[in-house]
Specification:
Elements: H1 3-6, E1 10-16, H2 23-31, E2 39-45, H3 51-61, E3 65-70, H4 80-90, E4 100-104, E5 108-109, H5 114-124, E6 128-132, E7 134-139, E8 142-145, E9 157-161, H6 162-167, H7 177-187, E10 191-194, E11 201-204, H8 215-229, H9 233-242, H10 251-265, H11 274-290, H12 292-300
Parallel strand pairs: 1-2, 1-4, 2-3, 6-10, 7-11
Antiparallel strand pairs: 4-9, 5-11, 6-9, 7-8
Helix pairs in contact: 8-10, 9-10, 11-12
Length: 304
């Protein structure tokens, strides 16, 4: 690696709760990175399993791993709860000490050059604000893609240029925080992206769109999140149709659509930024005509 890459200072912040069944794989694959983080802040969000003991074990062996412990709220909380835990870790660091930061979940298996390659890509293209690799799940002895768009960085491993993260105001403390941030980057003319390449493919040990209750509940939550963000019904309908063939077949799409419709019928609040919602609707209508990748490139000039 070039010395400029080798000297890169980046910080990982990992909110977690009851990850004993997955976290050793994440911890070991971070330790095996060719470009290790300068600091890793792990926020234990009230775990009741063996998570605290495992974290203590790794923190004792590596002085760049720091543990913050929150009290047990009694349940797992996505959206606001996860981001609250993230910010409890974020507030303990001086962001001026780092060029990059990453919100990293503890249910992943990362390839060894993962962070090295992300840093190289961001150094080569200064307009990239946030990026990631692609998530795969193990199913029937094979790796199956989770099918994320190229115009977003994935919520379980969002790698950010610190200056851009601060400029967009960080993460919104609500479901769909990991979509709002990418659109806010595009509002600034920056690029949010992910790449599907062998050295950037990571294994998601807990399936996307599931919840502590069921995949149905998780998909309904996604529909609510799209409603909150400001997604229009036509785009939501197209998105649900696109995912009809994903497990659980048909039912997952129905749950997403019902989550949006139920939120609309109940008059739930939406993201309180009218300029953002107008920007989002224009982007989504264009995406329906030319595809999300081209629509995003038109906004950022990435295709030039």
């Amino acid at each position: 690696m070039q010395s400029s890459i080798r000297d890169t200072r980046y910080v990982l912040i990992s909110p977690c709760r009851n990850e004993a069944g997955y976290m050793r794989e994440t911890l070991e694959t971070v330790l095996a990175q060719t470009l290790r983080p300068t600091c890793w802040v792990i926020v234990d969000d009230g775990s009741t399993d063996d998570t605290p003991q495992i974290l203590d074990e790794y923190a004792a062996a590596h002085d760049w791993i720091r543990i913050i412990t929150r009290s047990d709220r009694g349940h797992r909380a996505v959206g606001r709860g996860v981001i609250d835990a993230f910010y409890e870790g974020y507030e303990t660091i001086d962001t001026s000490d780092f060029e990059f930061l990453c919100k990293l979940d503890l249910d992943l298996r990362l390839p060894p050059r993962y962070f090295e390659i992300l840093v190289q890509r961001m150094r080569a293209e200064p307009r990239i604000a946030t990026c990631s690799g692609k998530a795969y799940v193990e199913r029937g002895g094979e790796l199956v893609p989770e099918r994320h768009g190229d115009e977003t960085s994935l919520g379980m491993t969002k790698f950010y240029r610190v200056s851009c993260f601060e400029a967009i105001g960080g993460f919104v403390r609500e479901v769909m925080w990991d979509g709002i941030d990418c659109h806010r980057c595009r509002m600034h003319g920056w690029i949010a992206c992910s790449w599907d390449e062998p050295e950037l493919r990571f294994v998601h040990l807990r399936p996307m769109g599931s919840s502590q209750q069921s995949i149905w509940v998780g998909r309904m939550r996604h529909g609510y999140g799209q409603y909150f963000m400001g997604t229009g019904f036509l785009f939501m309908l197209a998105s649900a149709a696109y995912r009809l063939a994903e497990p659980p077949l048909v039912l997952g799409s129905v749950a997403m659509l019902w989550g949006w419709l139920k939120s609309a019928l109940q008059g739930k609040p939406r993201y309180d930024d009218p300029d953002f919602r107008r920007f989002l609707r224009r982007y989504q209508m264009r995406a329906l005509l030319v595809g999300k990748r081209r629509a995003a490139e038109e906004l950022t000039g990435a295709g030039a």
